[in-house]
Amino acid sequence: MNAAAKFKPRIFSGIQPSGGLTLGNYLGALKRFVEKQDEGIETIYCLVDLHAITVWQDPAKLRDQTREAAAGFIAAGIDPKRSILFNQSQVAGHAQLAWIFNCVARMGWMGRMTQWKDKTAGKNAEAESLGLFAYPSLMAADILLYHATHVPVGEDQKQHLELCRDIAAKFNHDYGVDFFPITEPVIEGAATRVMSLRDGTKKMSKSDPSDASRINLTDDADTIAQKLKKAKTDPEPLPETLEGLKDRPEARNLVNIYAALADKTPEAVVGEFAGKGFGAFKPALADLAVARLAPIATEMKRLMADPAEIDRILGDGAERADAIAQPILDRALEITGMIRSRRS
Ligand code: AMP
Ligand code: TRP
Q: Distance between CA 48 and CA 35 in Å, rounded?
């Protein structure tokens, strides 16, 4: 039976607090998290601190970054009353279900993940943490612990979500149940893969050593404008149609960013700027980006001044998340043959 029919619509997604949030996180994920919330679907959003420690994190920095990411979510429009917002480590079921999935998933499945291959390329894979290898299994647990039916993400997470479906299907098959949904990825919009401002063939990333390669959600108006004006481009004017941007990755990236920020299609943006050079396009983009992003940075700063309030919001979110997760985890333990010995 197709899972979608049996399970009520529920959105889950997560972001690692392993650095500051970027424009890529905003356009590929966060902005769309807000849209889903505003459509009135049940939404659960998680700062995946257990995923973050698959590579070394300084503990004090991790705490700061988790609070900052929470502030970023709220500043961007996540309402912690309408959505559940929490940090992963506070709901024990994530790690518990991940263990079950470590026993369902196969080593070969993990070894085929391109993110694992990219992260270990040119390095000694043997020296990476076991957690980094098993990362997608924990991600499947995040999603399936809530029987989430839809997961909005950027393009780079597509393969991990296919693996989540494989894990759900294998669990259901191995135990002869129809318990976990076959979750749908939601990869939509003009900017599902925002590229570096310095190199149009590389993803914009919080871990890129060059700060000029990305826009951080904490950047102020001047910094945003400067970075966009200095972004790598080419001397050609913008073409009449998108086809003309095929071999111009930097130009295409800026058009996608503009489209996503303006809630337009890239086709419409090219139509608007056809024949104009970057001397005209970049200032327009900078103005738009500043108008959309600078208020988020200001609001983040305000929220960050009261870390106790952020912790309270995360604590409240964790309690509400746990209330959904616990019965699902209990049932998963029962299905796998664990004796239920706790008094309730
Ligand atoms: P991460 O920062 O790796 O935890 O990613 C959190 C979310 O942001 C995921 O849904 C990613 O797919 C999305 N994301 C991260 N970087 C980008 C990017 N450069 N373009 C679009 N989406 C991104
Ligand atoms: N792996 C995701 C990323 O780096 C983060 C993540 C962890 C996630 N668990 C998730 C995303 C569950 C969606 C659903 O982008």
A: 21
Mean pLDDT of 60-65: 98
Question: How far apart, in whole angstroms, are the C-alpha atoms of residue 74 and residue 301?
Answer: 11
Distances in Å between the Cα of 154 and the Cα atoms of 14, 183, 340 are: 11, 15, 39
Task: Please calculate the CA angle 308-314-320 and round it to the nearest 5 degrees.
Answer: 140
Side by side, the strands of the sheet bearing 184-186 are 84-87, 42-47, 10-15, 150-152, 184-186
Q: Provide the Cα torsion 121, 202, 18, 73; round to 10°.
A: -150
Q: How far apart are CA 337 and CA 165, in angstroms?
A: 22
Spacing, Cα 136 to ligand 1 middle (Å): 15
CB 3 within 8 A of CB 180: yes
Which are the contacts of 88, defined by CB distance < 8 A and separation ≥ 6? 14, 46, 47, 48, 49, 50, 51, 94, 142
What domains appear along the chain, each with residue ranges and CATH number? 3-192+306-335 (3.40.50.620), 211-302 (1.10.240.10)
Distance of alpha carbon 101 from alpha carbon 175, whole angstroms? 13
- Determine the Cα–Cα distance for residues 257 and 224; give it in Å rounded to an integer: 13
Q: Which atom of ligand 2 is closest in space to residue 29's alpha carbon? A: 15
User: What residue ranges line ligand 2, CB within 6 angstroms?
Assistant: 12-14, 16, 48, 51, 139, 142-143, 151, 153, 157, 160
pLDDT at residue 45 is higher than 80 = yes
158 tagged catalytic: no
User: What pTM, to 2 d.p., does this model score?
Assistant: 0.96
CA 91 to chain centroid, in Å, comes to 19
pLDDT digits (tens, 9 = 90+) for 99-119: 999 999 999 999 999 999 999
Pocket perturbation via mutation, ligand 2, pick of 21, 36, 51, 184 by most ligand atoms within 8 A of CB: 51
